[in-house]
Design a protein that fits this description.
Helix content is 52%, strand content 17%. With 378 residues, the chain is of the alpha+beta class.
């Protein structure tokens, strides 16, 4: 069998034009599929940035909330009720809102403002500059250094600005695990300052962050919160709810799925047609092998092996190009949201395997119908 496979490689490499066309076709398909799916997974990951960065175990919210960006304020009594639930170690309020920052040059910049519980500062980011207790200073804010940091004119410690006609002072420069999706800078301050400086609604609490005493207490907490008419989700459940919203309730998931399928069809059509032409061009050679006693199973193994080699090379080159472009994009485009995960690598691998199998099947059908007499035609 090893001799048959070596012969299969010689036949494959012998026709360099069709060999390169096959590899390039699959490379292009993998490249497009990886770009589309990486962008999708990147957007999904960045849309859950607040959930991941704050790190609360359980989030309490209005049942109509789908994403951490679109909160529905809750009355103050909900916080007291949640704190009284058995199994709750502690619960603190969180404010998430939008503010309009006026810089020294007179320009305005929208920003996300997160108000942390005054007593515990639960969910505070890691500071690169400044001290945690500085947030209690007059008009103090922590600014997150991420891709959107420059939109605030790269402030330093002590830089002043206006936010919703209130004075603000940069008391710390922070960093978070994942940057914001929507291109807005992020400011952290205390809950009381955020609710005083930003235009208030009737209710102020965006979310309630709960730390359960144990994992076994979480279902008890969720049932008790449900009786209050609100929803309690673990961080993973909230991330899944956020993902489902962007996947199924917006056009983003459908559009990226369509583009991925188009990439798959392009790769399949190029590989299938080229592989069939390759088999036709080598029909006499396959017929000669059959005439001298090669079994049909050996000919099938040759075709499958050739298809595997081409798919393996195409997948590798496609992954290389996609990874290089994504890395370059992140260096040059601050808000470029794309990430390569095991999921989209596996998805691309499965699609390449399907392309490989279908392309091989097209060639196998023609090979199995070969009459050895074809060798002796003039």
């Amino acid at each position: 069998m090893s001799g048959i496979l070596k012969l299969a490689l010689k036949l494959l490499f012998g026709d360099r034009g069709k060999f390169l066309t096959l590899v390039i076709g699959i490379t292009f398909a993998v490249f497009l599929m990886m770009l589309m799916t990486s962008m999708f997974f990147g957007i999904i990951e960045h849309s859950a940035a607040n959930i991941i960065n704050i790190g609360a175990r359980v989030w309490v919210m209005d049942p109509d909330v789908q994403t951490p960006q679109n909160s529905i304020p809750m009355p103050d009594y909900v916080l007291d009720a949640v704190r009284s639930i058995p199994g709750v170690d502690y619960a603190v309020p969180l404010y998430v809102g939008a503010g309009l920052v006026r810089l020294h040059n007179g320009t305005y910049q929208s920003a996300t403002v997160i108000g942390l519980d005054d007593a515990s500062l639960f969910g505070r980011p890691e500071l690169l500059q400044g001290k945690t207790l500085d947030i209690y200073g007059n008009d103090a804010f922590f600014v997150v250094r991420d891709a959107n940091f420059g939109k605030l004119d790269n402030p330093k410690l002590g830089t002043t600005f206006e936010i919703n006609d209130h004075r603000g002072v940069v008391a710390g420069i922070a960093r978070v695990s994942i940057g914001s999706l929507f291109g807005l800078p992020t400011l952290y301050t205390t809950y009381s300052r955020a609710t005083e400086d930003l235009p208030p609604t009737r209710y102020l609490t965006s979310f309630i962050l709960v730390q359960p005493k144990s994992a076994a207490a979480i279902p008890v907490i969720q049932r008790a919160v449900a009786k209050l008419g609100y929803l309690a989700l673990t961080d993973r459940q909230f991330i899944t709810r956020n993902d489902d919203f962007y996947e199924f309730q917006t056009a983003m998931g459908t559009n990226i799925l369509i583009m991925t399928l188009i990439s798959f069809i392009v790769g399949l059509s190029i590989a299938g047609e080229t592989f069939y032409m390759f088999v036709l061009d080598n029909l006499e050679r396959f017929g000669a092998l059959k005439a001298i006693g090669a079994r049909s199973s050996e000919l099938v193994a040759m075709i499958l092996y050739q298809s595997f080699v081409v798919s393996f090379l195409g997948f590798g080159f496609g992954m290389l190009l996609a990874s290089a472009l994504i890395a370059f994009g992140k260096l040059r485009i601050p808000n470029y949201a794309a990430v390569i995960t095991y999921q989209n690598i596996g998805m691309a691998l499965v699609m390449v395997a399907v392309i490989s199998v279908i392309s091989a099947y097209i060639g196998i059908r023609r090979i199995l119908r070969i009459d050895p007499f074809v060798v002796f035609r003039s």
